[in-house]
Amino acid sequence: MTSTTESPATPPGGAEAAVPGRVVVLAGGLSHERDVSLRSGRRVAEALRGAGTETEVLDVDSRLLERLAADRPACVVPMLHGETGEDGAVREVLELLDLPYVGAAPVACRTAFDKPTAKAVVARAGVHTPASVCLPHETFRELGAGKVMSAIVDRLGLPLMVKPARSGSALGCSVVRSPADLPHAMVDAFAYGALTLVERFVAGTEVAVGVVDDGSGPRALSPVSIHPDGGVYDYTARYTAGSTEFRVPATLSEELAAECARVAVLVHETLGLRDLSRSDLIVDADGVVWFLEANVAPGFTETSTVPLAVQADGLDLGRLCASLVAGATARGAHRA
């Protein structure tokens, strides 16, 4: 990994952010990504405390609403990964409680978290996205799994990427290089949800681009190129230290890096996201940038790409988080 060594810098937008009151970071929950969420939540809380913000981490359980009502925070930072945290439901509840929060609104979360829907929306905006089909488990059972899988291969060809339509952290994702591998890949994907997305596999350099907006408009962080040891950026490669090499700046030409940044900002705006997002892209051998998926609650673990890009851009993570909290708090006050 290549990065710059920096002194604390002011966040995007210029001025030092002032956070009026206590902040609650939501982490954990009951999704398959609970452990990743806890790690992300702890890091965000530590960064905010380092920036002088009183911060508490709360799990999402039956006591949460009671605790929020008993001691209302100035702002909430949802660091929940997986369906229960990124589908907009928790944010709907925060809005019912009139609690300001960092991140996209519920409708935008639902659109972004549903991969087939997000692909369709950004494709209409002119973004390249791999050809795909999305089918529920019932279709395979009722029409015959063998015949359906044969039709998929005939239509999309090989290799394929098989993934749950509504999941994260590459859980249940598989690369299929022969028809014999497809049944097992489908079983793995259906283990994480009733709807599976099958895409034409795009070979190339995987790139993650974070987008931040502290009120001065969305801007892309430095693209991060991803080079997993095993060639596939799966769950183990994402969260096991040393399993993947992350390069910042990305191993791309200036023109391609700029194009990745442009696409990430376009995705952020097209999906109606706010504050913070991350787009996962592939740059193929011809220099075409392909959109894979968007994340409304990017990870903040020690191997996550957004903190790496923040560091490489000479920004202080705590001050950046504080600026997003300050913006969300002001937005909540304006709405009230």
From TrEMBL:
SUPFAM superfamilies assigned: Glutathione synthetase ATP-binding domain-like, PreATP-grasp domain
Keyword set includes Cell division: no
Primary site of residence: cytoplasm
InterPro entries on file: ATP-grasp, ATP_grasp_subdomain_1, D_ala_D_ala, Dala_Dala_lig_C, PreATP-grasp_dom_sf
Enzyme Commission number, as recorded: 6.3.2.4
Pathway(s) where this gene product acts: Cell wall biogenesis; peptidoglycan biosynthesis
Keyword annotations: ATP-binding, Cell shape, Cell wall biogenesis/degradation, Cytoplasm, Ligase, Nucleotide-binding, Peptidoglycan synthesis
Record GO terms (molecular function): ligase activity
Keyword tRNA processing: no
ATP-grasp domain ranges (all copies): 119-326
Subcellular location: Cytoplasm
Name of the top EC class for this enzyme: ligase
Reactions that this protein is recorded to catalyse: 2 D-alanine + ATP = D-alanyl-D-alanine + ADP + phosphate + H(+)
Function of the protein: Cell wall formation.
Family designation: Belongs to the D-alanine--D-alanine ligase family.
Protein name (record): D-alanine--D-alanine ligase
Organism the protein comes from: Nocardioides lentus
Gene: ddl
